[in-house]
Amino acid sequence: MRVLRAAAAYAAAAFAFGFLLGTIRALLVVPRLGDVRAAMLEVWIMLAASWRICGWCMERLGVSPKRKVRVAVGALAFLFLIAFEAILGVLLLGRSASEQLQSFTAPAGLIGLGAQLLFAAMPTLHAARDERRKRGGRGRD
């Protein structure tokens, strides 16, 4: 149950931040820079925020640092995130399910998908960083 709760919290918080950031990108940045440049700018902000959100969720919810647990959290969070985006695309943007999937094939969509895959890996990356720190290695946030 802790894995499910952590995945849902991680995905929901990242989605909420991404919704806000995406709105700013669509309204202010895309008209000036275009889709691909705006996505490239947004992705770094989103990944930094996701890293912080992930760390907070893993620590706050007491998620085990075991690799299989962290992989499960990341995979479930990825599925939640994709589901949230699909629901948003259908309900708010009026896209069909196939249009939503097709949006991932555009260059900006591929950038976003790559970031989402990194988002899914973050729980495991946090655990690896924490393990290095325990062994005396250096790690930074």
Describe this structure in words.
- With 141 residues, this protein is an all-alpha fold.
- It has one domain (2-132).
- The protein contains five helices and no strands.
- α1 (2-33) runs antiparallel to α2, α2 runs parallel beside α5 (107-134) and α3 (67-91) runs antiparallel to α5 (107-134).
- The chain is globular.
- The mean pLDDT is 92.
Write the topology of this structure.
Blueprint (H helix, E strand, L loop, with lengths): L1 H32 L1 H26 L6 H25 L5 H6 L4 H28 L7
Helix pairs in contact: 1-2, 1-3, 2-5, 3-5
Query: What is the averaged pLDDT score?
Result: 92
Counting H and I runs of at least 4 residues, what is the number of helices? 5
Total strand count, please?
A: 0
Q: What proportion strand?
A: under 5%
- N- to C-terminal separation? 27 Å
What coarse outline follows from CA principal-axis ratios?
globular
Low-pLDDT windows of residues:
none
**Computed CA radius of gyration, to the nearest angstrom:** 16 Å
Question: How do you describe this structure in short?
Answer:
By secondary structure, this protein is mostly helical.
Descriptors:
141 residues, mainly alpha, transmembrane helix, membrane, transmembrane
